[in-house]
Automatic annotation (TrEMBL):
UniProt keywords, alphabetically: DNA recombination
Entry keyword RNA-binding: no
One function term, GO molecular function aspect: DNA binding
Pfam family, one: Phage_integrase
InterPro entries: DNA_brk_join_enz, Integrase-like_cat_sf, Integrase_catalytic
Lineage per the UniProt record: Bacteria, Pseudomonadati, Pseudomonadota, Alphaproteobacteria, Hyphomicrobiales
Protein name, as recorded: Integrase
One BP term from GO: DNA integration
Tyr recombinase domain: residues covered: 1-71
Length: 84
């Protein structure tokens, strides 16, 4: 399997699942690729950042953080944190 086949499968699966991504404009299939799998792994792994960095082969923690998309989006409840 090559990188283009992986990208095609990711696009097909996201469209079939009705996933549109964070952006509301444009072709939903253009928002996902094989690279989305790396970003998804970096974003969803609930381990120390150093392990993610090593697994993805990043030389710096800064690069790893670029891959980590909205990690705490649903884990932090702002209503509870504010005491409401």
């Amino acid at each position: 399997m090559n990188d283009r086949e992986v990208a095609r499968l990711v696009k097909k699966a996201t469209l079939a699942a009705g996933v549109c991504g964070d952006q509301s404009e444009g072709d939903p299939a253009e928002k996902f690729s094989g690279h989305s799998l790396r970003a998804g792994l970096a974003s969803s792994a609930e381990v120390d950042e150093r392990y993610v960095q090593k697994q993805l082969g990043h030389a710096s923690a800064e690069m790893t953080r670029k891959y980590q998309r909205r990690r705490d989006r649903f884990r932090i409840n702002l209503t509870r944190a504010s005491g409401l």
